[in-house]
Write a structure and sequence with these properties.
single chain, alpha/beta, Rossmann fold, Dihydrodipicolinate Reductase, domain 2, 2 domains, 6-stranded parallel beta sheet, 6-stranded mixed beta sheet, 12 strands, 22% strand
Length: 308
């Protein structure tokens, strides 16, 4: 059961790492239509510092934050996120989750089941789906028929020599690589336009690079190249579709940080709560992303074993 509605919904934050500090906390504190209800983190001292910076309350008990909130935003590694999100849903909190929801199908199913039992709304923050301009571009391509193929390249330089990103120290990114970190971004644009994936084939490349080939329900095919280890000079992201109407390429000029897209994701969650209409990028979509990426991971593991 969800909690009674308030004039301003209360949204709490789970997480205190670089993503929470640079994006989630500032956006929640600045959002005019919500109350930033508090912060919980695995390191209490970090939660206290982040809460003090944004004028809210630090909690050393996640369940206490759930009780004080109508929704939670999560900025935690995926397999820590999933069980906490299920607990938050059971407590009646709506969910604003990071991608991927989980790196196991069972973990993602747990979140979906908890959200469905409690009837809470959910949004998964796949950044491009909420980036102004890009979101509208994706919707236009989804409304266009006759696509023949699509292509996504998501090449990060997180692990390249000389990189100084704070995210390079993330243990889960080191373990899971580009497939799980940037794969959701690519799929979050390909699937709405071409339809769900009916076939997935994965092949490994240099370092953590993964190449995906997909067949979609529309009959179109697509490919995705995913990496966090590209040379800095080769890094970048693009998506394009080719079909009867020509070629559509993801718009340039997507800079400016993730603050505005995250605020748009908050707006999308509030709209889903208000209307009762599920957002297309909800936990069920997050589950589907996990299913596709887990199948790719299974294929890659099988090939590595065959090479031994």
């Amino acid at each position: 059961m969800t909690k009674p509605s308030r004039t301003k919904p209360r949204i709490g934050l789970l997480g205190t790492g670089p993503w929470a500090r640079s994006t989630h906390a500032p956006a929640l504190a600045a959002h005019p239509d919500i109350e930033f209800s508090g912060v919980w983190g695995r390191r209490p001292e970090a939660a206290a510092a982040l809460a003090a910076e944004h004028g809210t309350t630090a909690y050393d008990d996640a369940d206490a934050l759930f009780a004080a909130s109508d929704a939670v935003a999560v900025a935690l590694p995926p397999d820590i996120q999933a069980p906490l999100a299920a607990r938050a849903a059971a407590a009646g909190c709506h969910l604003l989750l990071d991608k991927p929801v989980a790196t196991t199908v069972a973990g993602a199913h747990e979140v979906v089941a908890a959200a469905e039992r409690s009837g809470v709304a959910s949004v998964v923050f796949c950044t491009l789906r909420f980036t102004p301009g890009v979101a509208a571009w994706t919707a236009r391509q989804a409304a266009t028929e006759g696509w023949f193929t699509g292509r996504a390249e998501w090449l990060g330089a997180l692990f390249s020599p000389g990189a100084d990103s704070p995210y390079a120290a993330s243990p889960w990114r080191r373990e899971k690589g580009g497939l799980w970190d940037v794969g959701p971004h690519a799929l979050s644009v390909l699937l709405p336009v071409l339809g769900d994936a009916t076939e997935v084939t994965a092949a490994g490349g240099a370092e953590d690079t993964v190449h995906l080939a997909l067949r979609h329900t529309s009959g179109a095919s697509s490919s995705a190249t995913l990496s966090l280890s590209a040379p800095a000079a080769a890094a970048g992201a693009t998506v394009e579709f080719r079909g009867a109407h020509g070629v559509a390429v993801l718009p340039e000029g997507r800079g400016g940080g993730a603050g505005a897209p995250f605020a748009a994701a908050v707006d999308a969650l509030l709209a889903a709560v208000r209307t009762g209409e599920p957002h297309p990028c909800d936990v069920r979509f997050g589950l589907r992303l996990t299913e596709i990426l887990a199948e790719a991971e299974r294929q890659l593991a099988g090939r590595r074993q065959g090479d031994d």
